[in-house]
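Lab notebook, bench 4. Continuing the backlog of folding jobs that were queued last week. Each job is logged with the same field layout so the records can be merged later without manual cleanup. Today's entry covers Fructosamine kinase, a 285-residue chain. Filled in by technician R.K.

JOB TYPE: sequence-to-structure
TARGET: Fructosamine kinase
LENGTH: 285
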Amino acid sequence: MTHPNPPTTPTAAATAASELTGTPATSTRQIGSAVFEVDLHDGDLVVVKSHDHPNAVQAEAASLSWLAEPEGPPVPQVRAHDDRWLVLDQIEPGSPTPRAAEDFGRQLAALHATGAPAFGVPPPDGPRDAFIGLAHMPNEPHPSWPEWFAEHRIAHYVRQAVDIGVLTTSEARIIEDVRVDAPTEPPARLHGDLWNGNVHWAADGRAWLIDPAAHGGHRESDLAMLALFGCPHLDRILAAYHEVAPLSDGWRERFPLHQLFPLLVHTVLFGRGYASQTLSAARSL
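JOB STATUS: finished
OUTPUT FIELD FOLLOWS
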C-alpha cells in the first residue's frame, strides 16, 4: 500500500537539505508553493524543491545536467536529489539588461545546436514519462518532427482536455486539424518549458535557465514559448539568436503552431480561459 507524501513544509525542506547534502541546515524560507531557500551550516545557500512524483524529480535533475553545456546559458548545479526532493545551487537574482539578453540569445542558439538523438527523446537518464509543470509530458523518440509534434504535443493534450471537459469535441477537431509543418532541421536540445518565468536574470549579469522540461525538438518551439507570455528584451534575444543561427523564412508566423503545446498544457491545468487562447492560435494557422 502506498501513502501520500508528508506535507511540504520549511521543516521538511530543511531536513531534506541536511540529509541530502550532509550539511546541517540553519534557516529556511519558503519562496514558492513547494520551493524553499535553505541556509546551510557551512555558509552555502541552496534551493530545495519538492515534487510529488519521483519521475518529476528525475526529469528535472536529468534536464539540468543535459542543458549544462559550456557554450549554452548557465544552469543551476544539482547538489543532490532523492525521489521527492531536489537540492540546487541558489542563483542570486538580478535585473534583465540588453547585454544579458543578447548574450542569452547567442547562448540559446549554441545550446540548441548541441542537438539530440531524435525528436521527443528525453535527456540521458531522464524518464520517458516526464512532466511539464504539473502535467505529464510523454517523451517518445520519433524521426519525424511533424508526426511527433502532432501526436505527442498536440493530440495528447487535446484528448486530456476533452476528457476533463475543458474542450468540446468540435473545438478539439479545430486544433487537431491544424497542419503541422516546419522546415526540416535536425533535432535541437530544448529547454522545453521556456516561458519568461524560467529565465532567471541573475546578479552576475547573465540569464540562467531554470525549471526545464528538456527533450529533443524543433528549435523554434523554445523561441515560440519564450514569446508566448512576453519576455524582457525579447527582440534583442531573438535578433542575437538569428544572427548566429539564422532561422528559416516564416519563423515568426509559425510561432502559433509551436505555442499550441504550452497553451494546451495550460488548458489542461487551468481550464477554459486558455482553451480560448488555444483556439485563437489554431484558427490563425
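OBSERVATION: The chain has a mean pLDDT of 95.
SIGNED: R.K.
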